[in-house]
Amino acid sequence: MAKRKAFITGITGQDGSYLAEILLEKDYEVYGMIRRSSSFNTARIDHIFGDVELVFGDLTDGSVLNRLMRTIQPDEVYNLGAQSHVQVSFEIPEFTADTTGMGTLRLLDAIREEGVRCRFYEAGSSEMFGKVLETPQTEATPFYPRSPYGVSKVFGYWITRNYREAYGMYAVNGILFNHESPRRGPTFVTRKVTRAIGAILRGEQDELRLGNLEAKRDWGFARDYMEGAWQMLQAEEPDDYILATGETHSVRELLDEAFGYVELDWNKYVKIDERYFRPSEVDLLLGDASKAREKLGWEPRVRFPELVRMMVDHDRERRHTEEHYV
Ligand code: NAP
Ligand code: GDD
After folding, report:
1. DSSP secondary-structure letter at 247?
2. pLDDT surpasses 90 at 326
3. Is 149 annotated as catalytic?
4. Which atom of ligand 1 is found nearest the CA of 85?
5. Which of 8, 12, 15 best tests ligand 1's pocket when mutated (most atoms within 8 Å of CB)?
6. 67 CA distance to ligand 2 centroid (A)?
C-alpha cells in the first residue's frame, strides 16, 4: 500500500519538528515547507533531514501554495507556519496578519482550487480567548483576542470552519494552550528562563530581564500536543478541539519551579524591564480538554514540574551562542 503523504508548514519550528518525527514513526511520507533564509534555519530538523522532503515556499505566496498542493497531492495538511510571537505581533502587525491569518486562507484555497482531497489541521491558539470571558476555557467559550497575533488566529479559526461548512472540507481547528519543550524558541518566557539558568550556572550571565510576572498560563509539553494534532485528523468527522493540561501557573511560579530545581534564588537575578510588557496582556489562560479526552482519548503525559525540569536539564548541559532580545 502507498504511504500516506503529509504536508507541514512551519516544519522548522518547535511543533513542526515534533510532528515530523511522529509522522515518520507512523510511516508517512513527510513534506515540509521551508522559507529561504540567509543562514541555516533547520537546526530542529537536522536529525531527520534525510527522511523528509523539504520544499521552498511561504504562506504569503499563494502561487507557490497552489503549486505545492497540485504537485504533492497530500493526504493530510498541517498548517503550523506562523509569525507566532505575541509581543512581536504588536511590532509587525501587518506581516503577522498576512502570515498567521491570510496564510491559512491561502492554503485552504490552494487545496480547494486544486481539488486536493486531504484533511486539514489549523494551529489555533488559546490566545484567541485573550481577555477571557469564562474560566476554564472550553470549545464553547467566546473569543476576545488581545493582540494582532490573537486576532489573526481568530481569522484562521473562522476561515477553517467556513471552508469546512461551505465546501465540505475535512478541516479542523486545534485550539492549543501554551506548549513548551527544549526546542521552544528562546524568546518565549519558559525557554528564556531555562536558558538563563544554564548561563547563570556556567557563570556567563548574572541578570535575567523579564516583564509581567503575574500572567498565568496553562503550560504543557509540545510533543504531547502534536500527538493530539495527529489524532484530530484521524477522527471520523472533522471537529474543533482544545488541548490543555487543566493547570495554570504564573510566570512567578515558573521562576520558583525552575530556579528552585537548581537551588538558586531567582530574586537575585531577575530584573523587571518595561520593554517586555505588552500593550495589552492576556492575564489568565486555563483550558478544559475534556472533549479531546472523551472523543480522541487524548491525555497530556508531561506535567508542569516535569516539563520545567526537562527544559532546565537541557539548557544546563547545552551551550548556546545565539543572541536574542525579545
Ligand atoms: P515556532 O517555533 O515559532 O515556528 C513557527 C514556524 O512558522 C517556523 O517554522 C517558521 O519558519 C514558520 N513561518 C513563519 N513565518 C512563515 C511564513 N511567512 N511562511 C511560512 N512559514 C512561516 O512556533 P511553534 O511554537 O512551533 O507553533 C506552531 C504553530 O502553533 C504556530 O502557528 C503557532 O502560532 C501555533 N501555536 C503555538 C502554541 C505554542 O504554545 N507553541 C500554542 C498555540 C498555537 P522559520 O523557522 O523560517 O522562521
Ligand atoms: N516572551 C516573554 N518574554 N514573555 C514574558 C516575559 C519575557 O521577558 N516576561 C513575562 N512574560 C509573560 C508574557 O507577558 C506572557 O504573559 C507570558 O509571559 C507568556 O509569554 P510567551 O512565553 O511569550 O507566550 P504567549 O503566551 O504570549 O504565547 C505563546 O502561547 C500562545 C498560546 O497561548 C506563543 O507560543 C503563541 O504562539 C501561542 O499561540
Report:
1. -
2. no
3. yes
4. 3
5. 15
6. 35
Give residue-wise pLDDT tens across range 173-226.
Answer: 999 999 999 999 999 999 999 999 999 999 999 999 999 999 999 999 999 999
- Local confidence band at 235 (pLDDT 50, 70, 90 cut-offs): very high
Of the candidates 215, 237, 7, 23, which has an alpha carbon nearest to the alpha carbon of residue 126?
Answer: 215
CB 38 within 8 A of CB 109: no
Would the pTM of this model clear 0.90, i.e. be above it?
Answer: yes
Name the 3-class secondary structure at 236: coil
Of the residues 125, 126, 147, 181, only one is catalytic, namely: 125
Q: What is the mean pLDDT of residues 33-51?
A: 96
Residue found by looking up cell 473569543 in the block = 143
d(CA 98, CA 85): 14
Q: Name all domains of the chain by residue range, CATH numbers in brackets.
A: 5-179+219-243 (3.40.50.720), 185-217+247-285+303-324 (3.90.25.10)
Residue with cell 495538511: 77
In the chain, the amino acid numbered 231 is: Q
How far does the centroid of ligand 1 lie from the alpha carbon of residue 267, in Å?
32
SS3 for 80?
A: coil
